[in-house]
Write a structure and sequence with these properties.
The chain is an alpha/beta fold and 381 residues long. The protein has two domains: 114 residues, Aspartate Aminotransferase, domain 1 (Alpha-Beta Complex), CATH 3.90.1150.10; 247 residues, 3-Layer(aba) Sandwich (Aspartate Aminotransferase, domain 2), CATH 3.40.640. Strands 2-10-9-8-5-3-4 form a seven-stranded mixed sheet, with helices on both faces. Helix 2 packs across helix 9, helix 10 runs parallel beside helix 12 and helix 11 crosses helix 12. The relative contact order is 0.17. The model has no long low-confidence stretch (mean pLDDT 96).
Length: 381
């Protein structure tokens, strides 16, 4: 047992998340802590909601708040609040997190209609709409807007409008874990009904909270549902704490994480959402061009490539894990590997939030080139 204080090394977190927060976000967590029932904190909650509404581009009749949990919990919250056991959900599965939606839906007794795409591709919207036509009883259709396991962006903006045109009453649920704050995302214009994210990626705060947004249609589902979701994930109960006043106790909220989220959202607002999206696009394009200049291939189809997350295929003869270890130990850079048993050998590089700059991309590229050059030299010796 070590009794000395833990002193972690400084890392550039350039993997699939978490990302390095802006120093101002970390500083916000050093402010005096209030109690979770303090009226001053309740004012901060309402301000955080309005900043989140701007980040989501959600209308005023949408319910916006943040769960005291991870993005996976927000995924589960959507399933258990908006569909009952025995009801049908259509899921576009194009990677690890599409598969996780399916797993959670099945655990809660939903009937799953799975539409699967190969790694690096997205499920075409026409197949999703065709599946809904075959399953008129479906209550939910779920897609991953930004698939963290592959770097693929789903054309969710086109799907929402097309779904509404059919007149189908299924609600559209979108995983925006790696898109909120870093990829063009308009909850209202995209016709989303339930969207969820997390704090540790493009928003640039520490992990521990999960922003969600519900449309007026989804809120109506909360009112008319006949099943009870788990208390900790019940969005109507959480609304009583986050929105309604006087606030009703639900749980002891992570106060310092709320400070961090508020500051991160404030910085998003100061920068400007469209400028932030552009910064992520520029940094991502710089990295992806540099990766290809090294002779490496990207996993995602070019027209579906995310900016904040780049999946790079490891070439034959290169030790993927050894490369990650060298980047971490010799250069202080964390990158991710493949996720899931079916994933090809790859590295996943994230340029998110505070890290979404050309300078950060150049540092990653320089380190990659040095490590790969040494591996090639050793292989040739």
């Amino acid at each position: 047992m070590h009794t000395a204080p833990f002193e972690p090394a400084t890392r550039l977190l350039a993997g699939p998340g978490p990302s390095n927060p802006d120093p101002r976000v970390i500083a916000a967590m050093q402010r005096p802590m209030l109690g979770h029932l303090d009226p001053d904190l309740h004012e901060l909650l309402l301000d955080t909601v309005e900043l989140l509404r701007l980040a989501w581009r959600a209308p005023h009749d949408a319910l916006v708040l943040a769960l005291s949990s991870t993005g996976t919990s927000a995924m589960e919250a959507g399933i258990v609040n908006l569909a009952a056991p025995g009801e049908t959900i259509v899921v576009a599965n194009a990677g690890f997190f599409g598969a996780r939606i399916i797993e959670l839906a099945r655990r809660h007794g939903l009937k799953v209609v799975e539409l699967k795409a190969d790694y690096g591709r997205a499920v075409p919207n026409r197949l999703i709409l065709a599946a809904l036509e075959r399953n008129p009883q479906a209550k939910l259709v779920a897609v991953v807007h930004a698939e963290t396991s592959t770097g693929v962006e789903h054309p969710v903006s086109q799907l929402g409008a097309a779904l509404r045109e059919t007149g189908h009453q299924a609600l559209l649920m979108a995983d925006c874990v790696t898109s909120l704050g870093g990829v063009e995302l308009d909850f209202d214009a995209f016709k989303l009904d339930y969207a969820y994210s997390c704090t540790q990626k493009c928003l640039g705060a520490p992990p521990g909270m999960a922003p969600v947004a519900l449309s007026a249609r989804a809120r109506e589902r909360l009112v008319t549902r006949t099943h009870e979701p788990p208390f900790t994930l019940d969005l109507t109960e959480l609304e009583r704490y986050w929105i309604q006043r006087p606030a009703a106790y639900h749980h002891t909220a992570p106060i310092l994480n709320i400070y961090a989220l508020h500051e991160a959202l404030r910085l998003v607002h100061v920068e400007g959402l469209e400028q932030r999206w552009r910064r992520h696009r520029v940094a991502g394009a710089y990295l992806q061009q540099g990766i290809q200049a090294l002779g490496l291939r990207l996993l995602a189809e070019p027209h579906r490539q995310l900016a904040p997350l780049t999946a790079v295929l490891a070439p034959d003869g290169v030790d993927r894990a050894a490369t990650q270890t060298a980047l971490l130990r010799e250069h202080g850079i964390e990158v991710g590997g493949g996720l899931g048993p079916d994933a090809p050998a790859m590295w996943r590089i994230g340029l998110m939030g505070h890290n979404a700059t050309e300078e950060t991309a150049e540092r990653v590229l320089t380190a990659f080139e040095a490590v790969l050059d040494r591996q090639h030299a050793l292989a040739a010796a």
